[in-house]
Every structure is written in structure tokens, then in C-alpha cells.
Amino acid sequence: MTFTKVVVLVNGLVPLALIIWDAIAGRLGANPAEFVIRSTGILALLFLTLTLTVTPARKLLNRPALGKLRRMLGLFTFFYATIHVCLYLWLDHFFDVRAIATDILTRPFQLFGALAYGFMVPLAVTSTQAAIRRMGKRWTELHKRIYWIAAFAVVHFWMGVKADVTRPAVFAVVIGMLLLWRYVNRTPKPGLLKPQ
Description:
Helix 2 (about 30-60) runs antiparallel to helix 8 and helix 5 runs antiparallel to helix 8. It contains nine helices and no strands. It has helices at about 5-25, 30-60, 70-90, 95-105, 110-125, 130-135, 135-145, 145-160, 165-185. The chain has one domain (about 5-180). It is globular and about 45 Å long. With about 200 residues, the protein is mainly α. Residues about 190-195 have low confidence and may be disordered.
């Protein structure tokens, strides 16, 4: 593992360590469950944003090596999203399947969260080199779902905030700009190229 990846790995685990430290010290506020669920969700969205940032940064800065960080950042996204989902299932519903299903079907922001995580699982499962080789072009098509995941995640966050939407708005603007950059700089399919 390169030094850069070690730095990313260590820094990716720091937020979780701080949350655990604050939990042990009893510094999670009046509603600890809400705090840890919200914090891990924001961390997942932050790492998702960083994952989407890799390609523009690699091309604009002419640093191809940055591409090697995309998988690690994507796995950190899934890592924190999984913690977020598990805490929600445990602390909000104590793994009551009926209550969870009702919550998802009756509260739109939970539905968008479920869609985001559901789309994310296949990406995490197929993040290995073996999966890339086995799937070929299908792997690229599958991993384009990250754009849908980003949209679902922002809507989930925005709709879940009761008052101040500043943070969801910041994520929406940044991710919107990254998706717009990706759209403008997409590689056209050969059949769409028109002769000059």
C-alpha cells in the first residue's frame, strides 16, 4: 500500500474514532442516537462527494495517480453508509422488519435513503479486481449508478432535515457541479460523433 493510501486510510477512520471517543466520554448530546445516525450519514455523503471529485481532480490537475484513490474513497462511502443504516435499523427500530418497512413506505426521505443504499451495495460487492476482469464493460455501466446514488443521498439528507437546510444545500451544489462537469466532459460514443 502506498503512503498516500495509508494517509487516506488513517484519515478515513479518524471520524469514526472520534465518534466512539465521544460516545465513551458521554459527549454525544441530548439525543446520542440521532447524533450518531446523522453523523455517519453525513460522513457517507462526504466520502461519496470525494469519490466523485477524483476524476475531475485527476484530469484538471493532470495527476493520473489520483485515480487509484477512487476505490478506497468509494469503499469508505459504503463503510459509513453501512454503519449509518445499521444504526438506523438498531436504534430507531430495534430491527423490527414491519416498522422498518412502514417507515420506508410512508416517509419519502427514508425511501430515498433506502434507494441510495440499495444501489450502493452492488458497487461495493463488485469493487474487486476479479469482479472488474469478470464483468468487463458491464462493470463500467454498473458503476455509473454512483450518479443516481449521489442524487438519492442528497434528497434523503435534504428531506430529513427539519429546519436548517444549509448543509444539504452545500452538498447539493457541490455534487450538482461535479455531475455537470461529468456530463459536459463525457466521452461521446463513437456512433454519436459527427463528421466535420
